[in-house]
């Protein structure tokens, strides 16, 4: 159980020097207890106290790193709006070692093709979980090596047989794969294998009581780079397990379950599988293993993940500079919008569809949408004119027309007056741009 602020305070240096960023040792102890400070911020804490306080200052969910750049866990809140979630769910594609060589090649190509651009950000599939279904250790090792050679993605090696994992891991240890699964029957061999190779290991047991018991036993081997698998393959049970583990880790600081959790989809129909995966991404899997690798299936899941794992206090923004869509010239229309990514890319997409090369100037509204920005005084004519002058649009076009979003038609008079340009009120929604653009010529 975690220490309270007062228990931590008893072990602090009590210099009240403020070097940790808060004025007193008591305030620092309170911040430490609530996970809002790091013990490293105090240069005067003794080694003995540091050892005692390690558990209090550790994050409620341990960060586990593996593969290319996958980080699991290290979350501090139950709900995104409490602060933010930090490490997007790692998505992995299930690849059985029972696939034929041709099927394996096709699967790898499909996985490599899972690359997307959305609201200006690039996404690709994070990794591959190679699963032993063949019962043949040599085949498992060969498939793992083939996948590793073909991609630089994070790898998971999954078998109940520690010897099979050992053989597959040997040539791939430098790739730092996640291995598994350690169960009640094999945990000593599997955890020791992970420890010898400094790779994280999945601890798997049916239900939370059994899982806690196994984690404690596994920690007894002197290792704690764990990812948890609570066993159930029924979505309703998996959701309950994921939620209980997260609550116990965050609210109760229950250390045996303070590790990231991996979930496996079970639905055979791809869209049902994606719906199942969305539940696990939302609550609270740090990694999800999927069977489908079709682009049309994976994109909605990645979109959901992007929405959940953006900081709610820092909307995604585009650079507030003049953007060109298509081969613009001196006659190209000139649109104004805000720098909120979703707004900007909705406008850009519709302008592109209109096939009329155009300029778009997103005004810096701190990443808020048009109406929110206007209500907050961030989409005012003075600010727009300032941005227009800084953008150099007057030198790019010979006309003097500004197209503004229909929702802020009210600013058109003042904007014309201040800029000397003619203000044209565009559609309220970006979906109206295509038909609106036909009225421009
Ligand atoms: Fe106390 Fe250490 Fe902070 Fe100084 S730096 S106020 S000694 S906790």
Automatic annotation (TrEMBL):
It holds the Pfam family CdhD. Keywords: 4Fe-4S, Cobalt, Iron, Iron-sulfur, Metal-binding. 5-methoxybenzimidazolylcob(I)amide binds at residues 337, 343, 367-370, 430. [4Fe-4S] cluster binds at residues 17, 20, 25, 42. It comes from the Bacteria. GO terms for biological process: acetyl-CoA catabolic process. Residues 1-59 form the 4Fe-4S domain. GO terms for molecular function: 4 iron, 4 sulfur cluster binding; iron ion binding; methyltransferase activity. This is CO dehydrogenase/acetyl-CoA synthase gamma subunit (Corrinoid Fe-S protein).
């Amino acid at each position: 159980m975690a220490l309270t602020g007062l228990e931590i305070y008893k072990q602090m240096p009590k210099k009240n020097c403020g070097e940790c960023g808060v004025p007193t040792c008591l305030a620092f102890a309170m911040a430490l207890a609530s996970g809002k400070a790091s013990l490293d911020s105090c240069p005067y804490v003794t080694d003995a106290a540091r050892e005692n306080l390690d558990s209090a200052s550790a994050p409620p969910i341990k960060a586990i790193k593996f593969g290319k750049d996958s980080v699991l866990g290290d979350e501090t809140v139950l709900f995104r709006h409490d602060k933010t979630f930090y490490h997007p769910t790692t998505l992995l594609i299930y690849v059985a070692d029972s696939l034929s060589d041709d099927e394996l090649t096709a699967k790898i190509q499909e996985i490599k093709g899972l690359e997307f651009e959305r609201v200006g950000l690039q996404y690709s599939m994070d990794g591959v979980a190679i699963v032993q279904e063949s019962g043949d250790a040599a085949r498992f090792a060969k498939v793992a090596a083939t996948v590793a050679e073909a991609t630089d993605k994070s790898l998971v090696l999954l078998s109940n047989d520690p010897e099979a994992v050992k053989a597959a891991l040997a040539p791939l240890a430098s790739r730092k794969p996640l291995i598994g699964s350690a169960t009640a029957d094999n945990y000593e061999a599997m955890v020791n294998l992970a420890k010898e190779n400094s790779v994280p290991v999945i601890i798997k047991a049916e239900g939370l009581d059994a899982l806690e018991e196994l984690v404690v036993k596994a920690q007894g081997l002197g290792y704690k780079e764990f990812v948890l698998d609570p066993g159930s393959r029924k979505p309703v049970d998996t959701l309950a397990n994921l939620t209980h583990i997260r609550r116990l880790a965050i609210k109760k600081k229950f250390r045996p379950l303070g590790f990231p959790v991996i979930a496996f989809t079970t639905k055979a129909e791809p869209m049902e599988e994606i719906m199942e995966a969305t539940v696990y991404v939302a609550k609270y899997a740090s990694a999800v293993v999927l069977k489908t690798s079709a682009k049309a299936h994976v994109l909605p899941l990645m979109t959901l993940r992007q929405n959940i794992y953006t900081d709610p206090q820092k909307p995604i923004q585009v650079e507030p500079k003049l953007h060109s869509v298509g081969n613009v010239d001196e006659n190209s229309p000139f649109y104004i919008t805000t720098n909120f990514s979703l707004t900007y890319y909705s406008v850009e997409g519709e302008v592109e569809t209109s096939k009329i090369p155009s300029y778009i100037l997103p005004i810096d509204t701190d990443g808020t949408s048009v109406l929110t920005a206007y209500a907050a005084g961030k989409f005012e004519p003075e600010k727009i004119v300032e941005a227009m002058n800084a953008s150099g649009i007057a030198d790019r076009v010979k006309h003097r027309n500004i197209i503004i979003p229909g929702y802020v038609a009210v600013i058109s008079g003042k904007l014309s007056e201040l800029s000397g340009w003619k203000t044209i009120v565009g559609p309220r929604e970006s979906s109206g741009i295509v038909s609106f653009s036909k009225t421009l010529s």
